[in-house]
């Protein structure tokens, strides 16, 4: 993948995305401050062993580039990834995203998306996808808020940890959509406070 999208650190005003490594076990444990943020995932992080297994799985996927998310002062606050990277068709997905409750509702998530989307489209991507559980209403609304479009439901798309099958809601943004979406997302970053308002902390994985 290195000839198309490099796996390198992305820096913003509120968030830094650095390539995830096996040295980030303690960072992930520190960021995982509420089990509810893993409600829609199959790999909750409670212990160093959980974090090590998460990192091992992320690094073993040749089509994935995982990142540790930090605030500007260096505090670890979660992860996000490019995945399903497809150089032949210039497409990829953004996901495996979760954030500490301390930064949910702040500028961290929208700025992280600006960094990831700008990097993808500036490197020649023509399509970026998001996938979420059809029942995760908050995640679906958040993805639409990024400027992506809903494209349909993928039945029996992923198996959950309990063995049941998930129907996935598919969203996408193209390079044609990005210029307008970029303006709106940067405005959202400017309008967000660095600290969430009381009672305004969603406890679901971010898109």
CATH architecture: 3-Layer(aba) Sandwich
User: How do the strands of the widest beta sheet line up side by side?
Assistant: 1-2-3-4-5-6-8-7
- CATH topology name, in short, is Aminopeptidase
Quaternary state, please?
Answer: single chain
End-to-end separation in angstroms reads 23 Å
User: How many strand segments?
Assistant: 8
Number of helices: 5
If you average the pLDDT, what whole number results? 90
Assign an overall shape: globular
Radius of gyration: 16 Å
CATH superfamily annotation: Gcn5-related N-acetyltransferase (GNAT)
Count of the separate structural domains? 1
Estimate the strand proportion.
Answer: 25-35%
Taking pLDDT < 50 over at least 5 consecutive residues as the criterion, the unreliable ranges are 194-203
Pfam family, one: Acetyltransf_3
Protein name: GNAT family N-acetyltransferase
Organism: Rhodococcoides corynebacterioides
InterPro entries: Acyl_CoA_acyltransferase, GNAT_dom
């Amino acid at each position: 993948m290195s000839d198309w999208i490099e796996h390198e650190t992305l820096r913003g005003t509120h968030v830094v995305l650095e390539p995830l490594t096996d040295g980030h076990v303690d960072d992930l444990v520190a960021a995982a401050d509420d089990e509810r943020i893993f409600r829609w995932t199959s790999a909750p992080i409670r212990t160093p062993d959980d974090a090590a297994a998460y990192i091992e799985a992320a690094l073993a996927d040749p089509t994935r580039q995982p990142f540790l998310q930090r605030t500007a002062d260096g505090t670890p606050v979660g992860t996000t990834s490019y995945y399903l990277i497809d150089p032949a068709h210039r497409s990829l997905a953004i996901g495996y995203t979760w954030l500490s409750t301390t930064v949910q509702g702040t500028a961290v998530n929208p700025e992280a998306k600006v960094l990831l989307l700008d990097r993808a489209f500036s490197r020649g991507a023509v399509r970026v996808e998001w996938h979420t559980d059809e029942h995760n209403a908050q995640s679906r609304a958040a993805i639409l808020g990024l400027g992506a479009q809903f494209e349909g439901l993928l039945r029996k798309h992923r198996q959950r940890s309990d063995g049941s099958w998930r129907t996935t809601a598919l969203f996408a943004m193209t390079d044609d959509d990005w210029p307008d979406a970029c303006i709106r997302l940067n405005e959202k970053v400017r309008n967000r406070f660095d600290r969430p308002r009381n009672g305004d902390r969603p406890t679901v994985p971010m898109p």
